[in-house]
């Protein structure tokens, strides 16, 4: 495939599509997106209509939350990476798309994820995060394995329990495990030791929902759709609903993450208070929010892949762990199928599916077929699942192919974009790639390892949630006993 956004041999075309009438066009697109077509069909219908993977549309929420919902959608593997080019794309206040929640949610600060690379505070905060993560590296595997031990023990109990209908709600148990893991990693203490009890994840859930409600639909009956649209998509829910939850979380981090905050102040010149609001956002929105969506997706795809793949994973994992004498970085690196399976899940269902950025200058974006002129200041929007399931790059793109990235397949990793950059690039203080990239990939591999060291296969029941999937574990089978 030609290198995206550089091949000038493709003809220049006018961007098809329109934003419709002011106000009404945005409302129509919002209704199509949430209620009449649904996400994937919304984009598919417009690709078919315009015969182009680059077109103009509005993105929800629109009036009255977004002052300007107009975007240019880029929906293939060639045009999507324009969003990673910081020299051409501004990422100021676009984390959630065409609106930004109040800074009251973060103590009055614009936290790192909302900052553009041209703002000096971005590099300072990002360097601080990268340094914190590097300093915690030795804890990643042992702490996560301990967290998973508790998680699987509880899952087994629930799968045995008649009162739980012999099934384990993976999402709820994963929320608790993920929150405890993130808190302990950053604060070196259990959340129960600092006044949070077991309420941390519920408080974060509320705080995240009140920021992201303009982007979700609860899937209510048709009768309640208009009411939902009015309540969730027309005005912001007030931040004070979660004021006390946020204060409790902030206080717990401020009193427990002393050494991390000292480092922010002494090494990076960031005030402790600003560093702590950034740390809470990193812990709650970026890390916990990411794991909350991602681990159920991972388990869903692994379980659905079937017993033959499970057998191969169990073989690989047990053999390598035996050879290496434990679950180490080196051992994980040797598990080529396990690695491929994690990348395949990140490709087929990227947990953060939307990316936005504004053109810093007039520019041309190239799809596989044509170039399109974009004016300075216009908003570019990428729906990532369409880029990472691009049939011009991936064979059988809608199919979960566990071995896809093994051997020669590794060459395709440059088309895996889940971390807001190619999987072959690294997060730095100067780009907008997720600094948790390596941690997420590592923990996902460790989750596979712990699963298949314990069990031969598993079955799940899957449903849809406003964000991500719901997963109930129905059975876990070992060679000798069926759990
Ligand atoms: C499965 C879990 C995760 C997913 C899917 C995820 C995904 C992403 C994505 C897509 C972005 C870019 C958003 C944008 O600008 O459009 C991002 C940014 C970010 N992520 Fe993650 N992330 C995850 C876990 C983590 C973890 C564990 C951490 C830290 C411990 C983290 C910290 C951040 C930060 C600080 C940013 C902003 C980067 C910047 O402004 O340069 N994330 N993440």
TrEMBL record:
Keyword match Metal-binding: yes
Keywords in alphabetical order: Heme, Iron, Lyase, Metal-binding
CDD domains: CYP74 (cd11071)
GO BP term, pick one: sterol metabolic process
Cofactor(s) recorded in Swiss-Prot or TrEMBL: heme
InterPro entries for this protein: Cyt_P450 (IPR001128), Cyt_P450_E_grp-IV (IPR002403), Cyt_P450_sf (IPR036396)
Entry keyword annotation includes Disulfide bond: no
Ligand binding (heme): 434
Superkingdom of this protein's organism: Eukaryota
Signal peptide start-end: none
MF-aspect GO terms: heme binding; iron ion binding; lyase activity; monooxygenase activity; oxidoreductase activity, acting on paired donors, with incorporation or reduction of molecular oxygen
Record-stated family: Belongs to the cytochrome P450 family.
Protein name in UniProt: Allene oxide synthase 3-like
Taxonomic classification: Eukaryota, Viridiplantae, Streptophyta, Embryophyta, Tracheophyta
């Amino acid at each position: 495939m030609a290198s995206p956004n550089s091949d000038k041999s493709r003809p220049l075309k006018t961007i098809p599509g329109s934003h419709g009438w002011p106000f009404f066009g945005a409302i129509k697109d919002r209704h199509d997106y949430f209620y009449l077509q649904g996400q994937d069909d919304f984009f598919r219908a417009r690709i078919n209509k315009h015969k182009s993977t680059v077109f103009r549309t509005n993105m929800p929420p629109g009036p009255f939350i977004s002052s300007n919902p107009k975007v240019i959608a880029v929906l293939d593997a060639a045009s999507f990476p324009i969003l990673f080019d910081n020299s051409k794309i501004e990422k100021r206040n676009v984390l959630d798309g065409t609106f930004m929640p109040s800074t009251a949610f973060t103590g009055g600060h614009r936290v790192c994820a909302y900052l553009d690379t041209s703002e000096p505070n971005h590099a300072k905060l990002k360097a601080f995060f990268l340094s914190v993560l590097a300093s915690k590296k030795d804890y990643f595997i042992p702490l996560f394995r301990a967290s998973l031990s508790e998680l699987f023990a509880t899952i087994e109990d629930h799968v045995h329990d008649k009162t739980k209908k012999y099934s384990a709600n993976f999402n709820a148990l994963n929320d608790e495990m993920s929150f405890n893991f993130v808190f302990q990693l950053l604060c070196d203490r259990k959340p129960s030791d600092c006044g949070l009890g077991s309420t941390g994840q519920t408080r974060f859930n509320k705080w995240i929902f009140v920021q992201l409600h303009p982007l979700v639909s609860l899937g209510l009956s048709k009768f309640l759709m208009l009411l939902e649209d009015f309540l969730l998509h027309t005005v912001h829910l007030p931040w004070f609903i979660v004021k006390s939850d946020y204060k409790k979380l902030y206080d717990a981090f401020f009193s427990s993450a002393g050494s991390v905050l000292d480092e922010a102040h002494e090494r990076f010149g960031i005030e402790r208070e600003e560093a702590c609001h950034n740390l809470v956002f990193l812990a709650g929105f970026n890390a916990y929010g990411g794991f909350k969506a991602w681990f159920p997706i991972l388990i869903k795809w692994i379980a659905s892949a079937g017993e033959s793949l499970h057998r191969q994973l169990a073989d690989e994992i047990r053999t390598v762990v035996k050879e290496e004498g434990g679950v180490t970085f080196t051992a994980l690196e040797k598990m080529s199928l396990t690695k491929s399976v994690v990348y395949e899940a990140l490709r087929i269902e990227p947990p953060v599916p939307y990316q936005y950025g504004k053109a810093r200058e007039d520019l041309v974006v190239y799809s596989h077929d044509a170039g399109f002129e974009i004016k300075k200041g216009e908003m570019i929007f990428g729906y990532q699942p369409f880029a990472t399931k691009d049939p011009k790059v991936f064979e059988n793109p809608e199919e979960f192919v566990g071995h896809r990235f093994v051997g020669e397949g590794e060459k395709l990793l440059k088309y895996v974009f889940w971390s807001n950059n190619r999987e072959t690039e690294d997060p730095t203080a100067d780009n907008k790639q997720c600094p948790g990239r390596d941690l997420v990939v590592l923990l996902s591999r460790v989750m596979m390892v712990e699963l298949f060291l314990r069990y031969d296969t598993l079955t799940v029941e899957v449903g849809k949630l406003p964000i991500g999937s719901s997963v109930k574990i129905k059975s876990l089978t070992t060679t000798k006993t069926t759990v």
